[in-house]
Amino acid sequence: MIVYLAVSLTVLAQSARQQTTSTGKKISPTLFGLFFEDINYAADGGLYAEMIQNRSFEYTPADRREWHSLTSWEYITPVFSYGSLNVETNKPVHPNNPHYAVLTIEHVGQPGVGENSKIPENKGVPGVGVKNLGYDYMVVNAGEKYAFSLFACQLSATPVALTVSLQDPRGKILSESKLTVNSKDWNKYTATLTASERSDSTSLVILGTTQGKVGIDIVSLFPENTFKNRQNGLRADLAQLLADMKPAFIRFPGGCLAHGDGLGNMYRWKNTIGPVEQRVEQRNIWGYHQTAGLGYYEYFQFCEDIGAKPLPVLPAAVSCQNSGGTWRIGGTGQKAIPMDEMKDYIQEVLDLIEWANGSVSSTWGAKRAAAGHPKPFNLEFVGIGNEDKITPEFEERFKLIYDAVKAKHPEITVIGTVGPFPDGEDFTKGWKYANNLTVPMVDEHYYQQPDWFVRNQYRYDAYDRKQSHVYLGEYASWGNKLKNAISEAIYMTALERNGDVVDMASYAPLLAKKNHTQWKTDMIFFDNEKVCLTPNYYVQKLFTANQGDYYYDKIVSKNSKDSTLAASCVKDSKTGDIILKLVNGGTASQSMKIDLSAFKKLASQAEQVVIAGSAEAENTLENPQAIAPVQSKIKVSKSFQYNAPAMSLTVIRIKTQS
Ligand code: AHR
User: Fold this and answer.
1) Residue 410 preceded by cis peptide, ω within 30
2) What sections of the protein cross the membrane (predicted)?
């Protein structure tokens, strides 16, 4: 189907000829988007703004061998208090959330007087309780408000008083609130904690300060300032960085995370909606824990908030063939939902479409409305499967799901899957299978060296436009140096040129938390307060925020023999703007000639953004500005020369005058 080399030579030969009048073609208006996977602590401890780690006491050794219900919690008994801490399951808040902590306060110490008050153990609020260490502690800022909540129930004859505080590493109280647990039923208690000063190593302390026994669960602390101030919301700085990119779509909740490494931890969307205390937590395939606090409702809401189309990926009823200790290329690692459960599974897929788009009077539309979103989410795309091994089990299940969606929801574009390129047979088998079924789009993935992206920039020129279209759902060059980002920029100009067959594309992975990274090349690195935007982020942003829906060829003339030079020109019909992307991946500056005579009424001044620097330059959390885009205004005319700096991407956006 794909004959790369022959086409590469043809394209080179064609572009070496004299430039003639520009012709154009419609391209996908949703070409560049984002792929969010809960990998590298991207969700819990990352984009999801919850500050308490293991808030529901649901961590287990299955998540990670050394983890348990009290991971990230410490038992404390300040001022010679004593009692006990247990984890119980007899009477949980909800069966989906079985574990909770039980504090028994037998004796509350008395702060010493006189000389005794100087004994370190005599300092602080006396009581029996727990301290949460957050995800590598918590950052609080002076004057900022934090929304605290917990579920609690009185297990003794008498009510129990609790003191909740934010404390710095020396035990200094930065904010405090008191509450009394006086119901034998589980109730939610809330408080607002305002930090008196900044601390980047804050803990949350809950102390029982009267004798008695109390159950606590779903202990939560959110900054009041979440993205768009949403409840159960997202970390404002990270979410804003993604919003700034203006992505056309967001694929979620992951690649391998979506199909899981066994039937036990496939991502089942219904487990992730509704009140957080009722969601089903589970082991994350990437070796940590998934609270599902950032669940389907939050993903869809975020897409809507930033104007991106939602692209949920559901398992094709088979799990990952490569992980969970079942790495047996050959197929035996893949687990399949039994055929007698497929009717229910297919219904689960159809229910998602109803949940997203159905009227409030439909069963699942009503659940969306009850969660606070009566209007539909306008779902257009559903991904089925991720890099699955193309086994008979996969084929049988995919077809059942695909046929059911097509029959009931012809308005939905189903995106199928092929194995990763170029390793293994599943890429070729997946394509053949998808084309036979006439699946509208398939999801290709590849991670390669930068020079691969330069050499293979003609890849899609050869794709048959009459077959399944492409969603390039995951790609990246191995590295976060400028040379990596520029190789991706060269490739992205080719994606625009082929935007009539490549309908969507997204870099991967997106987010990575310092010290919790499972995948070394990522777009944005972060810790609890800082972010590091890689050159790859800047390149992606320049393409996502400057997409078009019409592609023009022959606008830019360059030395056609130099494959490190690339360019594209698109028009954004919504604004009428003409957008040029000029890439130089070489070591010397290069001249490009731009001919805009095909366009009428162009403004003479344009917005220009340039990313340039040394090939080896990279940003870090400590030095995040080694590479940063430079914005300016430039004069443009019908015909002009542009001198593209060495190792650079330039985007020029020109308004058309009405
Ligand atoms: O992006 C990281 C992983 O790479 C994805 O989970 C998977 O789809 C691919 O193998």
Assistant:
1) no
2) none
Model confidence pLDDT, tens digit, residues 584-623: 999 999 999 999 999 989 999 999 999 999 999 999 999 9
User: Of the residues 267, 443, 445, which should be mutated to test ligand 1's pocket, given the most ligand atoms within 8 Å of the CB?
Assistant: 445
How remote is the CA of residue 447 from the centroid of ligand 1, in Å? Answer: 9
DSSP helix/strand/coil, 436 = helix
Q: Which atom of ligand 1 is nearest to the CA of 519?
A: 2
Q: Ligand 1: which atom is nearest the Cα of residue 257?
A: 6
The three-state DSSP-derived secondary structure of 61-124 is CCCCCCCCCCCCEEEECCCCCEEEEEEECCCCCECCECCEEEEEEEECCCCCCHHHHHCHHHCC
Task: Give the 3-state secondary structure of residue 426.
Answer: helix
Question: 509 C-alpha to center of ligand 1: Å?
Answer: 7
DSSP structure class, residue 49:
-
Q: How far is CA 639 from CA 22, 99, 241, 386, 601, in A?
A: 13, 69, 35, 46, 14
Structure tokens at 496: 């625009």
User: What's the gap in Å between 313 CA and the centre of ligand 1?
Assistant: 13
In terms of Cα–Cα distance, which of 315, 333, 330 is closest to 387?
Answer: 315
DSSP E strands in 116-229: the ranges are 128-132, 138-140, 145-154, 160-167, 173-181, 187-194, 199-208, 212-223
C-alpha to C-alpha distance for 254 and 305, rounded to whole angstroms: 20
Ligand 1 atom with minimal separation from the 285 CA: 6
> Pocket residues for ligand 1 (CB within 6 Å)?
37, 39, 254-256, 386-387, 420, 445, 474, 508-509, 519
74 has catalytic annotation: no
Residue 593, beta-bridge partner list: 557, 641
3-state secondary structure of 34: strand
Residue 323 is given by DSSP the state -
